[in-house]
Amino acid sequence: MAGNPSQLSPSPADSSQPPSSISACSKCGTVNEWVFCSGLTTPRNWGRWYQRCSKCNAWHWWPRQPLDVEALPPDVQYRMAVEQSLQTANAKEKGIVCGNPGCHGKRKSMPQRGNVACLNDPRLCSTCCQSNGGCGLAAHAPVKTVRPSPIQQKSFARPPTPAFSQSFANAVLHASPPQNPLKRKYQSDDSADDGGTVDFHIWNKDRSEPIKFRVPHPRGARFVLKAQTEYLKLRDVHLPDGLVEYYDPPARDWINMPITIGVDTKSSKVLYFRVPGVSDGVGFPSRGDGTTSATPDPVKVASPINSHLTQTPYAPGTKFPLTYTCDMAPAMRHMIDAMKSYREDDTCLKAELAKAFPGIDIKLATFYRHRNHFAKADKAGMVEAFECAGWSADGKWADLVAAVERLNRARSPSLSLPPSLPPSPSPSPSIPEIVAMHTVFQRVWRTFDDGTAGCEYYEDHLFDTFITTPPVIVGSRKDIFSASFDMTGHGPEVNCLAKQFRLTGDLIHHADQNNFEKSFGNAVSFSIRDAAGLYGGDTALIKFRQFAYNQGVEIYNIMFANTFLLECPSVDGAGPVWLCQDIIPATTKITALGTEQIGSDACLRDKTLHAFMHFTHAALERARKHPNPPIIEGQYIPFFNHFQGMLASASQAFCAADIQSPIGFDDGKCLCVFDVFSHDYLNHDFFKFMRDHVCTDMCHVLGLKQLHG
Questions:
Q1: What is the Cα–Cα distance from 403 to 396, expressed in whole angstroms?
Q2: Cα(592)–Cα(574) distance, rounded to whole angstroms?
Q3: Torsion of CA 568, 573, 578, 582, to 10 degrees
Q4: Are 413 and 484 spatial neighbours (Cβ–Cβ below 8 Å)?
Q5: Is residue 111 located within the same domain as residue 16?
C-alpha cells in the first residue's frame, strides 16, 4: 500500500458519475436517485454509484463492473486496513459487537451488535450507552421517566341528600341473595334459547280482521307454522293441504308455500300469513298500513314498548366453532376447496381461514379436528339436515359432532367385537368409511337361556342402517362387513356382521345360473319375504337337538346367531338383501335341550358338528324327493338351503381346520363364522364336505344312514 495516507481521496464529483442523477429501474420502471458508495465494508464497491429501487428492491451499480482494489486511493486503503484490524473475528462475521464486556442483550448467550454511529470508544449498543448516560447521539439519549400524575380525589358537587342514602340502604336490605355465576350463565343461555316469543297474524276469511298470536319461540330460529297447529286449532284456523301464503317483506309480495317450510324471524317484527284463497283482509301489509309495514319505522323502533319486538339479529359469534351448522358448513366447504390449492402452505391456509371465519382466532389443529367431523358427516349425508334446520335447536354444530362420534363408535371394532378379539386385517389399507342407508328388516331371534325363538317383520317401517367399508373379510363368494342399525330411533344399538353375496365364475357360466340369480347375487333385487325362505339353519339345529334328545345322545353346544335380513333401500322389494348376524362373545353361556356339558370336550364338539351336517344332508335328500317343491318368484328351486351362523362356546371356539374344510374363519381366540352353502346342482362347500365325510360313533348311535358304501 503506497502513497500519503493524509491525502484525501477523490470526491464524488471527481469519480465517473452516472449519466444523470436519477433514472428509472430497469425491472419495474420506478424512478430512483443514484447514491455514491463511500463505505469501507466492501473495497470493490468504494467509489461506485448505486441505486436501490424503492419498489422492487433491485440493486443497480455504476460503473457496472466493480473497481480493482489496487486502484483505490491510498488513504482509502489505509482506512480499510485500520478498520479491519480493529475488528474481532466474531465482528468480522456478524458485524461490530458492543464494547461493554457485561453486555448480554436480549440473547444472554452473546452481546448485542454495537451502533457504528455511537460516539463512545469502543462503540456500544443503544441499551448499554443509554445506561451509561448517553453519548450525545439522539438515538442513545437516556429515556426520561415521567412521574405519574397524582390521583384526583372524587368530590360531589353537593352533599348527598337523605333520600339518596335511604334508596341505597333499601337496595342493600332488599337485594336478592347472591347467585352462582355459573348457574346465572346457564340460566341466561336457557333464556336465550327458549325464552323468546314471536308474533304472527293470519287471515282465514276475506274482509276480516287478522287473528293475532304470540307464541314461544327460540330466538334467532326459523319459524315453522306447522309447529303451531295446536294454537291454530284453538282459533278455528284450518290450512287445507298443508299450504299457506306468507308475506315476504324483502319481496313485498305474497308467496305460496307448505307449512313445513321455516321463515326468517329477523326480516319483520310481525309475521303475516293468510289461508290460500283469501285475497282481501283488514290490515293487509300490502295496503301500506303503517302499523303493519314490513319495513319498521326507525323512530318507532328507537323507543319500543315491548322488548321482544326489538331483538338483536343473531350473529354467528366470535368463537370457534360457531354455534350453528348453517354458519359452519359454507365456511368449511370454502376451506376444503382452499386446501386443494394450499395443501403444504400453512401461511396461505391461515389467510384463507381468516377469510372463512372473519374476526375469529383459530389454530390449524382445531380447524383440522372439526374439518374431519364435517367430512365424515358430509359423506354420511347428515350435514344437509342440520344445515336446513337453521338457527334452531335442531341445527347446532355440537349435535352434528355428537352424531359423527356415535357413528365412529358404531363402526369401531373395539366396541362391536369382544375385547380379546382383534379386528381381522383388511385386504387393503383403505380408510374405513360409513355408508348410511334406509332399510326394512326381518329379524329371526332366540333366547339363549330358555331356547325360545320367534320372528319379527317390520314391513312398513324404515330403519337407519350403517355399513362400514371396506369389508372385514373378503371371500370367494361373499364379503363380510361390520354393520349397525337402529331399532328404536335413538341411535345405532345393534352391532352385527353383514354379508353380501356375489356370483362366482362357476355359477355365472353354469346352465342353471338363472335360477341362482333369483336368490343371492351381486346387488340382486328380490323380496325380503322370499329371502326369508333361503335360510333355515336355526330350524334345522332345533330339529337336530330334539332328534338327539329323543335318542338319548349327548351333543356339544353349537348355535346360530340371531339373524337379520336387511333389504335396501325401500320396502318395494327392489333393494339388495344383506344377511346380518349378531356378534356373540365366547363367554356366552349356552344351555340347550339334550346338552349336559358346555365346551368341555373338543372331540365331542367335532363329532356333534359332523353329525349335524350328516343330519342336514339327509333332510335335504328327503326334500329332493318332495312332490311339491317350493317356488320362489316363479323359479323352480327345489333343493336350495342356506345356513349362516356363528358358533360360540364357553371355553374354546370352533376352528375350520379341525374338520379340514374351508367353510369358516377363525381369529384363533374366541369367534368363528360358520357357513354351510348348498345347491343341488353344484358341488360346493357343503357337498364337498359331505363327500369327504366319515361317519363317527355319534352318527352310528343317532342311526344316521351312511353316505358312502
A1: 11
A2: 38
A3: 90
A4: no
A5: no
* Cβ neighbours of residue 652 closer than 8 Å, sequence gap 6 or more: 586, 599, 602, 605
**Helices 325-341, 397-411: inter-axial angle, 10-degree rounding:** 70
CA 605 vs CA 587, 611, 642, 690: distances in Å:
16, 10, 22, 17
CA–CA separation, 37 and 185 (whole Å)? 68
Q: Could you give the number of structural domains in the chain? A: 5
- Yes or no: say if 268 and 309 are a contact pair by the CB < 8 Å rule: no
**Residue 72 Cα distances to 1, 8, 286, angstroms:** 10, 12, 92
| Residue 631 and residue 568 share a domain | yes
Q: Which residue has the higher pLDDT, 548 or 565?
A: 548
Query: Are the beta carbons of 214 and 199 closer than 8 angstroms?
Result: yes
Q: What is the 3-state secondary structure (H, E, C) of 525-543?
A: ECCHHHHHCCCCHHHHHHH
Both 537 and 621 in one domain: the answer is: yes
**For 586, which DSSP code?**
T
List phi, psi (to 5°) of 246. -120, 135
pLDDT at 189 > cutoff 70: no
Q: What is the mean pLDDT of residues 235-253?
A: 81
The answer to whether the CB of 218 falls within 8 A of the CB of 392 is yes
- Provide the 3-class DSSP secondary structure of residue 71: helix
Closest CA to 238 of 211, 263, 261, 264: 211
566 near 485, Cβ under 8 Å? yes
Domain extent, residue 114, equals: 87-139
530-547 residues labelled b (16+ CB within 10 A) or e (exposed): bbbebbbbbebbbebbeb
Q: 228: domain CATH number? A: 3.10.20.90
**DSSP-H helix ranges across 481-638:** 505-508, 513-517, 528-532, 537-551, 602-624
Other Cβ atoms within 10 Å of 65 Cβ, number: 9
Q: How many CA atoms lie within 13 A of 528 on its CB side?
A: 28
Q: How distant, in Å, are the alpha carbons of 6, 19, 36, 50 from that of 32? A: 35, 13, 13, 10
- pLDDT tens sequence across 472-497: 777 656 677 888 877 666 666 777 77
- Range 663-667 contact pairs with CB under 8 angstroms and sequence separation of 24 or more: 663/689, 665/424, 665/473, 667/421, 667/422, 667/424
Identify whether residues 218 and 356 lie together within a single domain: no
Grid cell listed for 30: 420506478
Q: What are the helix (H) ranges across 476-601?
A: 505-508, 513-517, 528-532, 537-551
Q: What is the pTM of this model?
A: 0.32
Is residue 396 domain-shared with residue 515, that is, in the same domain? no
C-alpha cell at 42: 466492501
pLDDT digits (tens, 9 = 90+) for 297-316: 333 333 333 333 333 344 55
Q: In whole angstroms, how far apart are CA 198 and each of 201, 268, 304, 594, 623? A: 10, 10, 15, 70, 71
CA 194 to chain centre: 28
Rounded-to-integer distance, Cα 276 and Cα 267, Å: 22
Give every CB contact of residue 331 below 8 A, 6+ residues apart in sequence.
Answer: 322, 356, 357
